[in-house]
Amino acid sequence: MKQQNSNRSILLGAAFLMATSAIGPGFLTQTTTFTQSLAASFGFVILVSIIIDIGAQMNIWRIIAVSGKRAQEIANDVLPGLGVFLAFLIVLGGLAFNIGNIGGAGLGTNVLFGISPEMGALLSGILAIGIFLVKEAGRAMDKFTQILGFVMIGLTLYVMFSAKPPIGEAITRTFIPETVDFLAIVTLVGGTVGGYITFAGGHRLLDAGLKGKENLAEVTKSSITAIGVASIMRIFLFLAAFGIVAQGLQIDPSNPPASVFQLAAGNIGYKMFGVVMWAAAITSVVGAAYTSVSFIKTFSPVLAKYEKAIIVGFIVISTAIFVMIGRPVTILILVGALNGLILPVSLGVMLIAAHKTKVVGDYKHPIWMTVFGGIIVVVMAYMGGYTLINQIPQLFS
């Protein structure tokens, strides 16, 4: 019974690590920005992204669990050197995201306590470092992300009800959209399962020793739970923003999510935004640092030995860069879109590995999962390419 409870705790911790890694400052900014431009039709974007997220997440977590290897090791088994290339993409994206995460933490503390964003970012960075310096860092990380995950969802739910969104219209346009925006889909998928995010929970399960065919049912359930938590937060935030848009109120483009919270619930809502922004940012700092370093620690025994020190260094560098260059809204949307471009590569590699006995032994990956994953690779590659050529340049025009 004790072992069963321990496994349940690990699985829930992995799910919340992935979900809260996804729910960062970029997540909040992207959701409110696209709701402002697409209104009720953004519900369709969320629906499509959830379907893609589940397909990507289930495939990747199962293959990691059954192989007992991290993604970069699997990629190297598929093609020597591919794991190094994948790790480079993941770490670069993770660092870019973490600069935004640190900035979001600074913004949250600025709203709550009136201190400068730079000082708030510095203090938040120190707190994140502290989590990795405690003896049971993995367990501390699990509890930290779970508690703050529930806090974010609860506060956003309150703001959603305060905004009084037209639910009927939102449901209708979720299935019959007036417009379809590829950039929005690629950005949402990239911000939920792109780059390092989809590997956060899978690598956490390996570090906790939960792997093998005997645990696949629980691993699959945990992967879907992770997407469920992130999606619930996305839906609540979308409805809150849509309520404001439907009332004809103007969302401040310099800080879209703060504007939504304040317009919906006044000064109390604004303070709630500070809590949600800080919680979203700090949990994403933890997730990005942990997962990015998990992609390079297998390349050398020295890196594995000093894993905690490298994680601390990752957070320090992210904080220093933020203090120097800041966190523009456009960059958060761009990074999400670029992370979406990484997904076809990482998922494609994992699907090939799923059918190599060198990687998975005698395990037979379900054909329907392979087909589902293959469709996602093609669709994301097409939408990502279209976005890269036609839409991303418009962000800077």
TrEMBL record:
UniProt-listed GO biological process terms: iron ion transmembrane transport
GO cellular component: plasma membrane
Membrane topology recorded in Swiss-Prot or TrEMBL: Multi-pass membrane protein
GO MF annotation: an example: cadmium ion transmembrane transporter activity
Keyword annotations of the record: Membrane, Transmembrane, Transmembrane helix
Membrane-spanning segments: 38-56, 77-99, 111-134, 146-163, 183-202, 223-246, 275-296, 308-325, 331-354, 366-389
Cellular compartments annotated: Membrane
Name of the molecule in the record: Membrane protein
